[in-house]
Amino acid sequence: MRIGAVDKYFGATQVLQNCTLDVGDGEIVTLLGPSGCGKTTLLRCIAGFWDADAGRIEIDGQDMTPVPVNRRPVGVVFQSYALFPHLTVARNVGYALRMRGTPASEIEARVTEALRTVSLEGFESRYPAQLSGGQQQRVAIARVLVMQPRVLLLDEPFNALDAKLRSTMQVELRQLIKQLGITSIFVTHDQEEALTMSDRIAVMRGGRIEQAATPDEIFDRPVSSYVADFVGTSNFWDAQAEAGQVTLPDGQSVETGLSGKVRVMSRPHNLRLAPEEQGPWRGVVLFQRHIGPLIEYHVEMPDGATIKVAAIRQDRVRPVRDRAAVSIGIIDSAQVSVFAD
């Protein structure tokens, strides 16, 4: 599948700008970004709900521009699931096939197979109100799978689920999609969800794709401070690049091809705390945030900025108390990013 230089306007407002993205067969690509960045608009252009004003959307090498929405080889799982409350699970799943005039025997076989695929055998006669949120989502997915789409589009499908179920369903859905080998486009504003679900992530900003790369590349090698700030927790500070080097606050240096004023970023897990006398980068611990196996320390610097440092619980030699004076050290200077913006 290929999205080639797609533009979209609503009146005089441009909401998509030169969006280009290649999606491999069986690949899961997530469109990630804040509300209003254009990710749902791009998804709707792929589905055919809206027409792009410029560019091409190709599936299996065929331009989808002249293909109406009901003839495109795509299936859409909506945020709300959009199940018919008065129809059973089986009739919900087989609804689109009936509308197409598919023979009853084929509908029954394909519905049975779709429900088996999403582990809902035995639920055929239940109604949506008799299902949990996770089961309703599986029905919505089965209703798409029964149509045997070439491309699966998912528009924030986990929003209606509680946090624990949401985490479980992310893993289950990724495993199901990979098992079936369906090319998939996933839309979310949740960075953790994107990192869990995706083979690649396309981070969007103001209608443009800022970076498209693997989750590891997005997290470890962001191309801009925007991507670094949006995906994961980041610490930023201003610095000066001279002779291809940037001096870091703890005295180390990092190479860069930039010169002049730059913005430097380090992830919290690439920092360590030590007693104050052991380094030049010093501050005071404001408080500690416990995140499962991690502790995130918020350290106030003399200029009023806050630096976040993450430590694994069992790695702590001794507790660091609130209001303790500490120094911060960078573990691996090669993992520090330097941006022009």
TrEMBL record:
The keyword Plastid does not apply. GO terms for molecular function: ATP binding; ATP hydrolysis activity. GO terms for biological process: putrescine transport. It comes from the Bacteria. Keywords: ATP-binding, Nucleotide-binding, Transport. GO terms for cellular component: plasma membrane; protein-containing complex. The keyword Zinc does not apply. Residues 1-231 form the ABC transporter domain. It holds the Pfam family ABC_tran. This is Spermidine/putrescine ABC transporter ATPase. It comes from Marinibacterium profundimaris.
